[in-house]
Amino acid sequence: MTILEVCIDSAEGLCVARTNGADRVELCSVLELGGLTPSIGLVTLAARAGISARAMIRPRAGDFVFDSNELAQMLAEIDAIRETGIEGVVLGASHADGRLDIETLTQLSERSKGLKKTLHRAFDLVPDLDEAIEQAITLGFDTILTSGRAHTALEGIQDLARAHQVAAGRIAIMPGAGISAANVRSLLKNAPFAAIHGSCSAPAKADNELAAKLGFTSLNRRTTSAKSVADLKTALRL
């Protein structure tokens, strides 16, 4: 059975994902920015919820080229998140040309010793797919989250299938980006991926008008959809 991982950024999203069939959650904050490090409160709730969970370690939006101050912040975040008892973390770091930043990733991986590790979509920037997979394995990652270096996983299916072939069971290739109940079976026809990653989200209900006017909320805010989670889980069972 293919594992369904759902990325969430709130206590409500955690509850929705857990009760509608998610096997694992990726914990983030502000998903509309691609996901940043979640609050310790959310990570603690996930640890208590009894669901497999991995926390994003990403200090800011934008690229994945991190300086020494940002690295220090990420190392501190790993230390704090470890204390909650959750399963693992989600990491990534790049050079300006898209190659994986092995020096930074080595420090992050060593600090994460004993935790399970997903390499996030910094992987989608790499110029050499085969080389990056081998590097991820050497660094101790057990999963790579990727769209196949494309806007959506369906558009990147050739790279995804190639990555699955190169990985050869040594590391899980987990497709993500634009996956839904309507298209996941088409994706799985190309390779028997062990896990699928979905946001399973929908636009949030309109916030208080004054709060929006004062800039307290994002116009692009989304929330985890119970129907989207349940439908995707059902599609994976077919």
What order do the helices and strands come in, and which of them pair?
Blueprint: E1 3-8, H1 11-19, E2 24-27, H2 40-49, E3 52-56, H3 68-82, E4 88-91, H4 102-111, E5 116-119, H5 129-139, E6 143-146, H6 157-167, E7 172-175, H7 184-188, E8 195-198, E9 201-203, H8 209-213, E10 222-224, H9 226-237
Parallel strand pairs: 1-2, 1-8, 2-3, 3-4, 4-5, 5-6, 6-7
Antiparallel strand pairs: 9-10
Helix pairs in contact: 1-2, 3-4, 5-6
How would you sum up this structure, described in words?
The chain has about 240 residues and is an alpha/beta fold. The chain has one domain (about 5-235): Copper homeostasis (CutC) domain (TIM Barrel), CATH 3.20.20.380. The chain has helices at about 10-20, 40-50, 70-80, 100-110, 130-140, 155-165, 185-190, 210-215, 225-235; strands at about 5-10, 25, 50-55, 90, 115-120, 145, 170-175, 195-200, 200-205, 220-225. The strands form two sheets. Strands 7-6-5-4-3-2-1-8 form an eight-stranded parallel sheet, covered by helices on one side. A two-stranded antiparallel ribbon has the order 9-10. α2 (about 40-50) links the parallel β2 and β3. α1 runs parallel beside α2 (about 40-50), α3 (about 70-80) packs parallel to α4 and α5 (about 130-140) packs across α6. The protein is globular, with a radius of gyration of 17 Å. The N and C termini lie close together (about 10 Å).
